[in-house]
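Incident log, structure service

09:12 report received: a user says their structure output differs between two submissions of the same chain.
09:20 pulled the input from the user's history:
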Amino acid sequence: LQHIGQFFVFERTVAASQVQAYHMRQQIHDKLNALPLSYHDQYATGRLLTHLFSDVQSIQMTVCLLLRGVPQFAFAVVVGLAILFYLNAGMAWLAVVSLAIFGVGYFWFAGRQKAVSVNLREKEGLLIAHMASRVANFRLVKSFRRETAEAREFLRKATPNLQLRLASLALTVGLVGMWGLIGVFTMAAVVYFGVRQVQSGQMTAGEFLLFHGSMAGLFWPVAALTQQIGHYYTLRATSIKIMRVL
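09:34 re-ran on a clean worker, output below:
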């Protein structure tokens, strides 16, 4: 059932995103044609082409990832918490406390991820615009023998993109790592209190093992949800760029 459901979800999300990308490109194309010449004089051709191709493709891929992942992982977290409270309400609060602590860290990382994503999409647009103008004037570059100078200029403009991508990756890895540390201490607390309850007869060994396994199974969907943060802020930053044009 899981594999059949995944096939249906993947097929539907891909089809819907392709149709949406088609309509979005049509709207951007029509809007660019309707805008006055002063607007086209203000922005480089390569930057405008970025909206039609790179930005739309980024939105299409990101929406697919979010539609597939977020509902599945969120549902797994809700079911996991329900099972924990059904088995042992007292110890289940350990999961709630760990999620609350993680929520505080999440907002710290998310704010920085948002700023990095917005800056990255702007830098990428400028880099693509720069390259489009150089390719369009390739004969001029060759005529003045500016190949070496253009190579240095490209590296100068591309370096900020690399730094921002590494920063985005570091924030995502840091958030997942923080959740891993929280999970380690939470599981240690579960083992400590669980063993004491088994010794006192409040839980059977089987109930403790079931609770322990359910708690362990709660951490992977939360970790997977945290990885969607980068996708969300990429989608948000790209959508803002396109909405400026529309």
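09:41 both user submissions now match this output. Likely a transient worker issue. Closing.
09:42 reviewer note: The chain has a mean pLDDT of 86. The radius of gyration is 25 Å.
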